[in-house]
């Protein structure tokens, strides 16, 4: 049974540390900064870092690769469609990788970047490492991909089991929920969730992971077929959207300027 720990980095990043308590081997997801990982390894010398999982090429997700690889000899996995220095095993959609005795499936989810991948760990309690594609109550900016690409990537993730735990890489939860409330002011689940997470953050506690069930109930980018989301998108864009992709595009532009 794997355990997981969040290692805070920069202002609002999390590096996810996966641990196998039987073998005392561990893995990290998106180490943008080697420092938090190195400090954890120094404080826990019985553990060996064996694997590094990368979702996309942005520096705040890859900056620690070189130092960690040099220190530990860990194997680095990353997206085949992106050039990332230090990756040993480029991964494409549908591949599976063995990490810490468990099998992770690779999902190509373009939008934030063109080669972005997510890692899905199936089981009694599924885990999804979504990088900057799916956030709690939000999604990543479209730096490289199109609204259509991101919409379909999110739909693909939304089709995973509802009890899947979502481990994204940024603490954007409160700002995302404020936007979600602007899109759906009558959604009482959003307001309740905002109060809950506001209380956590005031105690300096992490808001993650989320669940796909919670995202389906509160994340406007997964709710583009809901009437209030459609109405809000039409108001903001100045024209009635003709499809869920157009709804998504309208609220993504709105969020960029929110």
SSE layout and pairings?
Blueprint: E1 3-9, E2 13-20, E3 25-29, H1 34-43, E4 48-53, H2 59-62, H3 65-72, E5 75-79, E6 89-91, E7 96-99, E8 102-108, E9 117-121, E10 127-131, E11 134-135, E12 138-139, H4 147-158, E13 165-168, H5 173-183, H6 188-202, E14 210-211, H7 212-218, H8 227-237, H9 244-256
Parallel strand pairs: 3-4, 4-5, 5-6, 10-13
Antiparallel strand pairs: 1-2, 2-3, 7-8, 8-9, 9-10, 11-12, 13-14
Explain what this protein looks like in three dimensions.
This protein is α/β, with parallel strands linked by helices. The protein is 35% helix and 25% strand. The protein is built from nine helices and 14 strands. The strands form three sheets. Strands 1-2-3-4-5-6 form a six-stranded mixed sheet, covered by helices on one side. It has a six-stranded mixed sheet with strand order 7-8-9-10-13-14. The chain is globular. The chain starts with a strand and ends with a helix. The model has no long low-confidence stretch (mean pLDDT 97).
Instruction: List unreliable stretches of 5+ residues.
Output: none
* Extended strand count: 14
What structural class should be given to the helix and strand makeup?
alpha/beta
**What is the H/E string?**
EEEHEHHEEEEEEEEHEHHEHHH
Gross morphology: globular
In DSSP terms (H or I, runs of 4 or more residues), the helix count works out at 9
Question: Span from first to last CA?
Answer: 41 Å
Rounded radius of gyration (Å): 18 Å
Q: Percent of residues in helical segments?
A: 25-40%
Described by strand count, sense and barrel closure, the largest sheet is: 6 strands, mixed
pLDDT averaged over residues: 97
> How much of the polypeptide forms β-strand, as a percent range?
25-35%
Identify the strand order in the major beta sheet.
Answer: 1-2-3-4-5-6
């Amino acid at each position: 049974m794997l355990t997981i720990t969040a290692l805070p980095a920069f202002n609002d990043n999390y590096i996810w540390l996966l641990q196998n308590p039987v073998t005392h081997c561990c893995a990290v997801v998106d180490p943008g900064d080697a420092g938090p990982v190195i400090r954890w390894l120094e404080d826990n010398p019985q553990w060996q870092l064996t694997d590094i999982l990368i979702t996309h090429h942005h520096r705040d997700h890859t900056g620690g690769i070189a130092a960690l690889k040099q220190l530990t000899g860990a194997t680095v996995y990353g997206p085949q469609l992106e050039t990332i220095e230090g990756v040993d095993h480029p991964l494409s959609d549908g591949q599976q990788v063995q990490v810490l005795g468990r099998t992770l499936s690779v999902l190509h989810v373009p939008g934030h970047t063109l080669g972005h991948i997510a890692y899905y760990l199936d089981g009694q309690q599924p885990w999804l490492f979504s990088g900057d594609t799916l956030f709690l109550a939000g999604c990543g900016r479209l730096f490289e991909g199109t609204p259509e690409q991101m919409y379909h990537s999110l739909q693909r993730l939304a089709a995973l089991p509802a009890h899947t735990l979502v481990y994204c890489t940024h603490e954007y939860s409160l700002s995302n929920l404020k936007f979600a409330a602007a899109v759906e002011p009558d959604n009482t689940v959003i307001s309740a969730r905002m109060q809950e997470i506001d209380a956590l953050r005031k105690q300096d506690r992490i808001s993650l992971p989320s669940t796909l069930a919670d995202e389906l109930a509160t994340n406007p980018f997964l709710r583009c077929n809901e009437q209030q989301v459609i109405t809000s998108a039409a108001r903001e864009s100045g024209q009635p959207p003709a499809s869920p992709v157009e709804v998504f595009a309208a609220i993504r532009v709105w969020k960029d300027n929110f």
